[in-house]
Amino acid sequence: MGSRARRMSVILVALALLALAVLASLALGSKPIPVGDVLSALRDGDGGEHATIVRGMRVPRTLVGLEVGAALALAGVAMQALTRNPLADPRILGVSAGAAAGVVTAIAVFGITTLTGYVWFGLVGAAVAGVLVYAVTGRAGVSPVNVALAGAAVDASLGALIYGLLAVDARTFDEYRFWAVGALAGRTPDMAAQVLPFVMAGLLLAVVAARGLDALALGDDVARGLGFRVGRVRLAAAGAAVLLTGAAVAVAGPIAFVGLAVPHLARGLVGADHRWVVAVSVLLGPALVLAADVVGRVITPPGEVPTGVVTALVGAPLLVVLVHRARAVSA
Fold this sequence. Notes:
Elements: H1 3-27, H2 35-43, H3 49-83, H4 95-108, H5 115-140, H6 144-168, H7 170-180, H8 189-216, H9 220-225, H10 230-252, H11 258-270, H12 274-298, H13 307-324
Helix pairs in contact: 1-3, 1-12, 2-3, 3-8, 3-10, 3-11, 3-12, 4-5, 4-6, 4-7, 4-10, 5-6, 5-10, 6-7, 8-10, 11-12, 12-13
């Protein structure tokens, strides 16, 4: 089987996994619903109990899971390529901390307690963090090391700000802790619609930057020799990471390890060509997030474990494996 045929096979398998994850997300939970009833509820919406559960509760969280999974996975692809750090995830630019700082500001300063409000403040916070990192690296030179150091500094500074606000305001802490674990429950179709433009814009930037990221992996001089404008490629990749991470964190909270694990899995299946890595990651990311959400719903009925907790439990051993397998962490 040729390389292209093998890669197309991977795409088809990833599509099948994503379809299976979507179906499981609609059918499974504290009250399992037969697949036939799920399809009837989607088609007819007759107002029965199953239709109410599927259309009112599970469809919205499935839509948000699709967006969040794709966004975090693509943000991880962009971050790992941009920093040439195989262990980078969306936190490396401080974008997650920026989104979290935006949410805390919304709660502590403006008294906002709705998830809809969190989305917009989280996006603004993520964008501000991205601009801060770019401004700092602009003075010192946009190298992978400088980007990583600036991101770490912004992440630490915003983290200190967040915990300072939480320490002096008990009400803010109570509101924040429910958002901070990372979950899909309680999300609405309106929230999914609000973050969709940002996810689509980030996806477009990631696709545009994909060929340039392949050239950057060979070094800046080689990339320039191949005709790529290194600064523009980096700016597009950083913009994609900011938009995708900001949107995902704002709507679902910080869900860990998706941005780290999915790019490595995609790279292992289709090679280092970022066009194929992006295509596979945008399918496997949502499949992973939806699978984690389903597991969280069914292991402790009638309650549920937040999605971010499940991905963290799975991701921690994966991180250990990646660290000990040199080949696996070669970006």
